[in-house]
Please model this.
Amino acid sequence: MKSELALVERIRRGAGRSRQLSLGIGDDCAIYMPVAGEELLFTTDLLIEDVHFRRETHKAADVGYKTLARGLSDIAAMGGAPKFCLVSLALAEWTDERWVDGFYKGLLELARGTKTALAGGDVARAGKVMADIVVCGSAPAGTALRRSGAKPGDGIYVSGALGGSALGLEAGRGKAWKKHLRPAPRLKLGAALRAKWGATSCMDLSDGLSIDLHRLCVESRVSAELDGDLPVFPGATVAQALHGGEDYELLFTLPGKAPRSIGGVPLTRIGTIRRGHTGRIKIEGFELQPLGYDHFRKP
Ligand SMILES: [Mg+2]
Model:
Protein backbone atom coordinates (compact mmCIF):
# COMPACT_ATOMS: atom_id res chain seq x y z
CA MET A 1 0.00 0.00 0.00
CA LYS A 2 1.59 3.27 -1.07
CA SER A 3 0.02 5.63 1.39
CA GLU A 4 -3.19 6.08 3.24
CA LEU A 5 -3.52 9.62 1.93
CA ALA A 6 -3.45 8.49 -1.70
CA LEU A 7 -6.00 5.81 -0.89
CA VAL A 8 -8.33 8.30 0.80
CA GLU A 9 -8.02 10.61 -2.20
CA ARG A 10 -8.97 7.81 -4.59
CA ILE A 11 -11.96 6.86 -2.47
CA ARG A 12 -13.01 10.49 -2.13
CA ARG A 13 -13.15 10.93 -5.89
CA GLY A 14 -15.63 8.11 -6.22
CA ALA A 15 -17.63 8.84 -3.08
CA GLY A 16 -20.62 10.61 -4.67
CA ARG A 17 -22.61 13.48 -3.27
CA SER A 18 -25.92 14.11 -1.65
CA ARG A 19 -27.64 17.44 -1.30
CA GLN A 20 -28.02 17.11 2.45
CA LEU A 21 -24.42 16.02 2.93
CA SER A 22 -22.78 19.42 3.24
CA LEU A 23 -19.40 17.94 4.17
CA GLY A 24 -18.15 14.50 3.12
CA ILE A 25 -14.81 12.66 3.26
CA GLY A 26 -11.73 14.65 4.32
CA ASP A 27 -12.59 16.35 7.60
CA ASP A 28 -12.92 14.95 11.11
CA CYS A 29 -16.64 14.42 10.68
CA ALA A 30 -19.13 14.45 7.85
CA ILE A 31 -21.99 16.95 8.13
CA TYR A 32 -25.51 15.99 7.19
CA MET A 33 -28.55 18.26 7.27
CA PRO A 34 -31.75 16.24 7.69
CA VAL A 35 -34.85 17.28 5.75
CA ALA A 36 -37.71 18.59 7.92
CA GLY A 37 -40.44 16.02 8.48
CA GLU A 38 -38.16 13.06 7.88
CA GLU A 39 -36.89 10.51 10.33
CA LEU A 40 -33.41 9.07 9.94
CA LEU A 41 -32.86 5.31 9.93
CA PHE A 42 -29.56 3.78 10.99
CA THR A 43 -28.20 0.30 10.54
CA THR A 44 -24.78 -1.24 11.00
CA ASP A 45 -23.23 -4.48 9.75
CA LEU A 46 -19.99 -6.41 9.92
CA LEU A 47 -18.59 -8.45 7.05
CA ILE A 48 -15.73 -10.68 8.22
CA GLU A 49 -13.28 -12.84 6.29
CA ASP A 50 -13.90 -16.58 6.85
CA VAL A 51 -17.24 -15.81 8.53
CA HIS A 52 -19.11 -14.04 5.73
CA PHE A 53 -16.73 -14.52 2.79
CA ARG A 54 -13.53 -16.32 1.73
CA ARG A 55 -10.65 -14.72 -0.11
CA GLU A 56 -10.36 -17.77 -2.42
CA THR A 57 -13.95 -17.56 -3.69
CA HIS A 58 -15.11 -13.96 -3.21
CA LYS A 59 -13.63 -11.22 -5.37
CA ALA A 60 -12.80 -7.87 -3.77
CA ALA A 61 -15.55 -6.10 -5.74
CA ASP A 62 -18.11 -8.69 -4.58
CA VAL A 63 -17.08 -8.16 -0.95
CA GLY A 64 -17.42 -4.38 -1.38
CA TYR A 65 -20.80 -4.75 -3.06
CA LYS A 66 -22.15 -7.05 -0.38
CA THR A 67 -20.89 -4.88 2.48
CA LEU A 68 -23.20 -2.11 1.27
CA ALA A 69 -25.98 -4.39 -0.01
CA ARG A 70 -26.57 -5.83 3.46
CA GLY A 71 -26.99 -2.38 4.97
CA LEU A 72 -29.22 -1.21 2.13
CA SER A 73 -31.39 -4.28 2.59
CA ASP A 74 -32.09 -3.15 6.17
CA ILE A 75 -33.04 0.33 4.91
CA ALA A 76 -35.33 -1.32 2.32
CA ALA A 77 -36.93 -3.38 5.10
CA MET A 78 -38.04 -0.16 6.82
CA GLY A 79 -39.34 1.33 3.56
CA GLY A 80 -36.62 3.96 3.67
CA ALA A 81 -34.49 5.74 1.09
CA PRO A 82 -30.71 5.46 1.58
CA LYS A 83 -28.83 8.71 2.18
CA PHE A 84 -25.21 7.98 3.05
CA CYS A 85 -22.90 5.35 4.48
CA LEU A 86 -19.71 5.19 6.56
CA VAL A 87 -17.33 2.31 5.95
CA SER A 88 -14.41 1.16 8.07
CA LEU A 89 -12.14 -1.43 6.58
CA ALA A 90 -9.60 -3.62 8.40
CA LEU A 91 -7.07 -5.03 5.93
CA ALA A 92 -5.26 -8.35 6.36
CA GLU A 93 -1.63 -8.85 5.33
CA TRP A 94 -2.64 -10.64 2.10
CA THR A 95 -4.56 -7.68 0.65
CA ASP A 96 -2.86 -5.38 -1.83
CA GLU A 97 -3.71 -2.10 -3.51
CA ARG A 98 -5.65 -3.92 -6.21
CA TRP A 99 -7.83 -5.65 -3.66
CA VAL A 100 -8.63 -2.39 -1.87
CA ASP A 101 -9.45 -0.67 -5.17
CA GLY A 102 -11.66 -3.60 -6.12
CA PHE A 103 -13.48 -3.44 -2.78
CA TYR A 104 -14.33 0.24 -3.19
CA LYS A 105 -15.18 -0.26 -6.87
CA GLY A 106 -17.84 -2.84 -5.95
CA LEU A 107 -19.14 -0.77 -3.07
CA LEU A 108 -19.28 2.53 -4.96
CA GLU A 109 -20.94 0.94 -7.98
CA LEU A 110 -23.90 -0.03 -5.79
CA ALA A 111 -23.72 3.30 -3.93
CA ARG A 112 -24.11 5.23 -7.20
CA GLY A 113 -26.96 3.00 -8.35
CA THR A 114 -28.87 3.62 -5.11
CA LYS A 115 -27.92 7.29 -4.52
CA THR A 116 -26.03 6.46 -1.35
CA ALA A 117 -23.12 8.83 -0.70
CA LEU A 118 -19.98 7.51 0.98
CA ALA A 119 -19.55 10.06 3.77
CA GLY A 120 -16.48 8.72 5.55
CA GLY A 121 -14.73 5.80 7.15
CA ASP A 122 -11.42 4.42 8.32
CA VAL A 123 -8.75 1.99 7.14
CA ALA A 124 -6.47 -0.05 9.41
CA ARG A 125 -4.41 -3.25 9.42
CA ALA A 126 -5.65 -6.40 11.14
CA GLY A 127 -5.28 -10.18 11.10
CA LYS A 128 -8.29 -10.68 8.84
CA VAL A 129 -10.31 -8.50 6.53
CA MET A 130 -13.25 -6.88 8.25
CA ALA A 131 -15.67 -4.37 6.74
CA ASP A 132 -17.83 -2.43 9.12
CA ILE A 133 -20.58 -0.32 7.57
CA VAL A 134 -23.11 2.17 8.87
CA VAL A 135 -25.91 3.12 6.50
CA CYS A 136 -28.24 6.04 7.11
CA GLY A 137 -31.58 6.27 5.33
CA SER A 138 -34.72 8.30 5.79
CA ALA A 139 -38.49 8.01 5.71
CA PRO A 140 -41.33 10.49 6.34
CA ALA A 141 -41.74 10.78 10.13
CA GLY A 142 -43.82 8.03 11.68
CA THR A 143 -44.10 5.89 8.55
CA ALA A 144 -41.07 3.54 8.66
CA LEU A 145 -42.08 -0.13 8.48
CA ARG A 146 -41.38 -2.11 11.64
CA ARG A 147 -41.43 -5.76 12.59
CA SER A 148 -43.98 -5.15 15.30
CA GLY A 149 -47.15 -4.29 13.37
CA ALA A 150 -48.39 -7.66 12.07
CA LYS A 151 -52.05 -8.35 13.02
CA PRO A 152 -54.03 -11.61 13.14
CA GLY A 153 -55.58 -12.21 9.72
CA ASP A 154 -52.84 -10.36 7.79
CA GLY A 155 -51.39 -12.20 4.82
CA ILE A 156 -47.67 -13.10 5.04
CA TYR A 157 -45.72 -12.37 1.88
CA VAL A 158 -42.17 -12.72 0.57
CA SER A 159 -40.51 -11.16 -2.44
CA GLY A 160 -38.53 -13.07 -5.04
CA ALA A 161 -37.45 -16.68 -4.47
CA LEU A 162 -35.95 -18.24 -1.35
CA GLY A 163 -32.96 -20.52 -0.82
CA GLY A 164 -30.92 -19.17 -3.75
CA SER A 165 -28.10 -17.84 -1.64
CA ALA A 166 -27.75 -21.10 0.33
CA LEU A 167 -27.79 -23.08 -2.91
CA GLY A 168 -25.24 -20.70 -4.44
CA LEU A 169 -22.89 -21.09 -1.51
CA GLU A 170 -23.08 -24.85 -1.92
CA ALA A 171 -22.74 -24.88 -5.72
CA GLY A 172 -20.23 -22.04 -6.11
CA ARG A 173 -21.49 -21.20 -9.57
CA GLY A 174 -24.50 -20.32 -11.72
CA LYS A 175 -27.42 -17.99 -11.02
CA ALA A 176 -27.62 -19.05 -7.38
CA TRP A 177 -23.97 -18.13 -6.82
CA LYS A 178 -24.67 -14.72 -8.35
CA LYS A 179 -27.63 -14.33 -5.97
CA HIS A 180 -25.29 -15.15 -3.09
CA LEU A 181 -22.60 -12.71 -4.24
CA ARG A 182 -24.76 -9.83 -5.41
CA PRO A 183 -28.18 -9.76 -3.76
CA ALA A 184 -30.27 -6.80 -4.98
CA PRO A 185 -31.50 -4.70 -2.04
CA ARG A 186 -35.28 -4.35 -2.44
CA LEU A 187 -35.35 -0.57 -1.96
CA LYS A 188 -38.14 0.24 -4.43
CA LEU A 189 -40.30 -2.57 -3.09
CA GLY A 190 -39.81 -1.49 0.53
CA ALA A 191 -40.67 2.12 -0.31
CA ALA A 192 -43.81 1.05 -2.20
CA LEU A 193 -44.95 -1.24 0.64
CA ARG A 194 -44.63 1.69 3.03
CA ALA A 195 -46.08 4.49 0.91
CA LYS A 196 -48.70 2.72 -1.20
CA TRP A 197 -49.63 -0.75 -0.03
CA GLY A 198 -50.12 -0.27 3.70
CA ALA A 199 -47.82 -3.07 4.87
CA THR A 200 -48.33 -3.63 8.60
CA SER A 201 -44.84 -5.10 9.19
CA CYS A 202 -41.71 -5.76 7.20
CA MET A 203 -38.17 -7.10 7.60
CA ASP A 204 -35.43 -8.38 5.31
CA LEU A 205 -34.55 -12.07 5.15
CA SER A 206 -30.92 -12.16 6.24
CA ASP A 207 -30.76 -15.29 8.40
CA GLY A 208 -33.45 -17.52 6.90
CA LEU A 209 -37.26 -17.46 6.71
CA SER A 210 -37.83 -19.76 9.70
CA ILE A 211 -35.83 -17.64 12.17
CA ASP A 212 -36.68 -14.26 10.62
CA LEU A 213 -40.44 -14.93 10.57
CA HIS A 214 -40.13 -16.15 14.16
CA ARG A 215 -38.49 -12.81 15.06
CA LEU A 216 -41.20 -10.83 13.27
CA CYS A 217 -43.90 -12.81 15.10
CA VAL A 218 -42.18 -12.26 18.47
CA GLU A 219 -42.02 -8.49 17.86
CA SER A 220 -45.69 -8.45 16.79
CA ARG A 221 -46.80 -10.88 19.56
CA VAL A 222 -48.52 -13.17 17.10
CA SER A 223 -48.00 -16.59 15.50
CA ALA A 224 -47.87 -17.59 11.86
CA GLU A 225 -49.41 -20.30 9.76
CA LEU A 226 -47.61 -21.15 6.52
CA ASP A 227 -49.46 -22.92 3.75
CA GLY A 228 -46.40 -24.67 2.35
CA ASP A 229 -46.52 -22.86 -0.96
CA LEU A 230 -43.05 -21.32 -0.89
CA PRO A 231 -41.39 -19.62 -3.86
CA VAL A 232 -38.31 -21.89 -3.90
CA PHE A 233 -35.31 -20.70 -5.93
CA PRO A 234 -34.83 -23.01 -8.97
CA GLY A 235 -32.66 -25.94 -7.89
CA ALA A 236 -32.81 -25.12 -4.18
CA THR A 237 -34.39 -27.46 -1.61
CA VAL A 238 -37.38 -26.59 0.58
CA ALA A 239 -35.00 -26.75 3.56
CA GLN A 240 -32.76 -24.14 1.92
CA ALA A 241 -35.80 -21.95 1.26
CA LEU A 242 -36.99 -22.29 4.87
CA HIS A 243 -33.69 -22.03 6.70
CA GLY A 244 -31.04 -20.71 4.28
CA GLY A 245 -29.74 -17.23 5.06
CA GLU A 246 -28.67 -14.23 3.00
CA ASP A 247 -31.49 -14.13 0.48
CA TYR A 248 -32.08 -10.45 1.33
CA GLU A 249 -35.67 -10.65 0.10
CA LEU A 250 -38.41 -8.82 2.02
CA LEU A 251 -40.81 -10.57 4.38
CA PHE A 252 -43.93 -8.49 5.08
CA THR A 253 -47.54 -8.58 6.16
CA LEU A 254 -50.60 -6.90 4.65
CA PRO A 255 -54.25 -6.86 5.72
CA GLY A 256 -55.38 -6.85 2.09
CA LYS A 257 -54.18 -8.54 -1.05
CA ALA A 258 -50.74 -7.71 -2.40
CA PRO A 259 -50.22 -7.39 -6.16
CA ARG A 260 -48.44 -10.25 -7.96
CA SER A 261 -45.36 -8.08 -8.35
CA ILE A 262 -44.07 -4.60 -7.56
CA GLY A 263 -41.47 -3.01 -9.80
CA GLY A 264 -40.81 -6.33 -11.49
CA VAL A 265 -40.18 -8.17 -8.20
CA PRO A 266 -42.61 -11.09 -7.81
CA LEU A 267 -44.52 -11.40 -4.52
CA THR A 268 -45.91 -14.60 -3.04
CA ARG A 269 -48.39 -15.05 -0.23
CA ILE A 270 -46.96 -17.80 1.98
CA GLY A 271 -49.36 -17.81 4.91
CA THR A 272 -51.46 -15.94 7.46
CA ILE A 273 -50.76 -14.24 10.78
CA ARG A 274 -52.63 -15.90 13.68
CA ARG A 275 -53.52 -14.86 17.21
CA GLY A 276 -51.65 -16.17 20.28
CA HIS A 277 -48.66 -18.56 20.74
CA THR A 278 -46.21 -15.68 20.24
CA GLY A 279 -43.44 -16.61 17.82
CA ARG A 280 -44.82 -20.03 16.85
CA ILE A 281 -44.85 -20.97 13.17
CA LYS A 282 -47.01 -23.79 11.86
CA ILE A 283 -46.57 -25.29 8.44
CA GLU A 284 -49.13 -27.80 7.16
CA GLY A 285 -50.12 -28.59 10.74
CA PHE A 286 -46.56 -29.10 12.06
CA GLU A 287 -44.56 -26.72 14.17
CA LEU A 288 -41.59 -25.22 12.31
CA GLN A 289 -38.40 -24.85 14.33
CA PRO A 290 -36.52 -21.60 13.68
CA LEU A 291 -33.33 -23.12 12.25
CA GLY A 292 -31.93 -20.17 10.32
CA TYR A 293 -28.53 -18.70 10.99
CA ASP A 294 -27.70 -17.61 14.51
CA HIS A 295 -24.12 -16.51 15.28
CA PHE A 296 -24.46 -17.34 18.95
CA ARG A 297 -26.21 -20.69 18.81
CA LYS A 298 -24.15 -23.51 20.30
CA PRO A 299 -23.51 -26.32 17.80
MG1 LIG B 1 -32.36 -6.86 8.71
